[in-house]
């Protein structure tokens, strides 16, 4: 028989109090939820889609949108792949805007194109009553 006169060692309480740890984690979680900003997705392209009164029918827009290209060298202006002057461009804008007031104008300008040409084309379009004007840009590769 083995007699032990010493009392068994009692284990000490853990040094980390679990209840207060849970409280601190809850406060941090609430802080993160409140301070997080929820952003809407920003579209990469501004699209104007045609509407249809009947599902399955062909698109209602039969005319192609206006496409103006502005090059860095002379001749600067092209309308739907045809070289034009500013006066011819003005006439074409008025004709198309009279036929269809909701016509879309897309401007593609070279990076080194004269900025005055871009402003002139935009002014001519607004003067003719074209309000749906888009500028196309080349997206960077690190996007």
Summed up, what is this model?
The protein has helices at 18-35, 86-99, 115-128; strands at 66-70, 77-79, 82-83, 104-109, 132-136.
Kindly describe this structure.
The chain is of the alpha/beta class and 143 residues long. The chain has a domain at 66-136: Nucleotidyltransferase, domain 5 (2-Layer Sandwich), CATH 3.30.420. It has helices at residues 18-35, 86-99, 115-128, and strands at residues 66-70, 77-79, 82-83, 104-109, 132-136. It has a 5-stranded mixed beta sheet with strand order 3-2-1-4-5, covered by helices on one side. Helix 2 (86-99) packs parallel to helix 3. The longest helix is centred in the N-terminal third of the chain and has 18 residues, at 18-35. The radius of gyration is 34 Å and the shape is rod-shaped.
SSE topology:
Elements: H1 18-35, E1 66-70, E2 77-79, E3 82-83, H2 86-99, E4 104-109, H3 115-128, E5 132-136
Parallel strand pairs: 1-4, 4-5
Antiparallel strand pairs: 1-2, 2-3
Helix pairs in contact: 2-3
Key traits:
143 residues; alpha/beta; Nucleotidyltransferase, domain 5; five-stranded mixed beta sheet; 3 helices; 5 strands; 32% helix; 15% strand
* Proportion in helices: 25-40%
Average pLDDT rating: 76
The Cα radius of gyration reads: 34 Å
Order of strands in the sheet with most strands: 3-2-1-4-5
Q: What fraction strand? A: 5-15%
Secondary structure category: alpha/beta
Unreliable spans:
56-61
Order of helices and strands: HEEEHEHE
Shape: rod-shaped
CATH class of the domain at 66-136: Alpha Beta
Strand tally is 5
